[in-house]
């Protein structure tokens, strides 16, 4: 749950907010990012996200490309919101490679379609 500081969005005129996309946490000033991150989650801090990029734990070769989003009340204003998003470009999980589960799922018969009435009379799997 996000418990960081957030701006009172009621005070921002609807025509003014700006949304920015960043391809690296290094493109965002650390003090602006950390002002939103709060004090109780080190995994949202600028230094942690930067370390992920510097160590190549995220990036094109890791199949996890930074796509950070920031919002400002108006051009040149400090960030009022930010989200660290990452685009996955491969099928590897969250650093967990459980190939036996993937293999079992591939070999298992598919459950009946809910869109094909009459295929399963009792409505439970397996039929």
Structure in words:
This protein has 127 residues and is α+β, with helices and mostly antiparallel strands. The protein is 20% helix and 17% strand. It has a 3-stranded antiparallel sheet. Strands 2-5 form a two-stranded antiparallel sheet. Strand 3 (68-72) and strand 4 form a beta hairpin. It is elongated, with a radius of gyration of 21 Å. The protein starts with 17 loop residues before the first strand and ends in a 20-residue tail after the last helix. The model is unreliable at 1-5 and 113-120 (pLDDT under 50).
For this entry, give a set of tags.
127 residues, three-stranded antiparallel β-sheet, two-stranded antiparallel sheet, 3 helices, elongated
How many H/I helical runs? 3
Number of strands: 5
**Helix coverage percent:** 10-25%
Q: Distance between the terminal alpha carbons, to the nearest Å?
A: 40 Å
Work out the radius of gyration: 21 Å
> What topology, given as strand order, has the largest sheet?
1-3-4
Strand content: 15-25%
What would the average pLDDT be, to the nearest integer?
78
* SSE run: EHHEEEEH
Tell me about the biggest sheet?
3 strands, antiparallel
What coarse outline follows from CA principal-axis ratios?
Answer: elongated
Low-confidence stretches: 1-5, 113-120
Give the helix/strand class.
Answer: alpha+beta
Give the arrangement of secondary structure elements.
Blueprint: E1 18-22, H1 30-37, H2 46-54, E2 64-66, E3 68-72, E4 79-83, E5 86-88, H3 99-107
Antiparallel strand pairs: 1-3, 2-5, 3-4
